[in-house]
Amino acid sequence: MLVVGSVLAVLAALLHVFIFYLESAGWTGPQAARVFGNTPEQAESTREMAFNQGFYNFFLAVETVVGVIFLIAGSTGIGAALVLAGTGSMLAAATVLLVTSPDKRSAAVKQGAFPLLAVVFTVVGLLV
Description:
By secondary structure, this protein is mostly helical. About 85% of the residues lie in helices and about 0% in strands. Helix 1 runs antiparallel to helix 6 (about 105-125).
């Protein structure tokens, strides 16, 4: 189960690296406009905020991947703590988006699916 949780955690991290790219490097570009539904004016006026928010996503991804590395190396306690902190934070952010922005429910579900499954499989793996 820890292996499945680790794979799901890496997938969650990869998705958050992509979100980091969109928010930090590609915010004013056409791909981010399609994904987030921003006009060029909105993107320009929120550029600093998105840049900062992108780094939050990146740091959660890094934390999660480092946790998986510790799990692979046999340091289960440290690895699980980092994986659960990273994916749990991703899941919490997706939940906030789901609750506070009904028009973005689809994005919240996409953002939260891998972290939710990673948390479940990691916890079950620790208990078995």
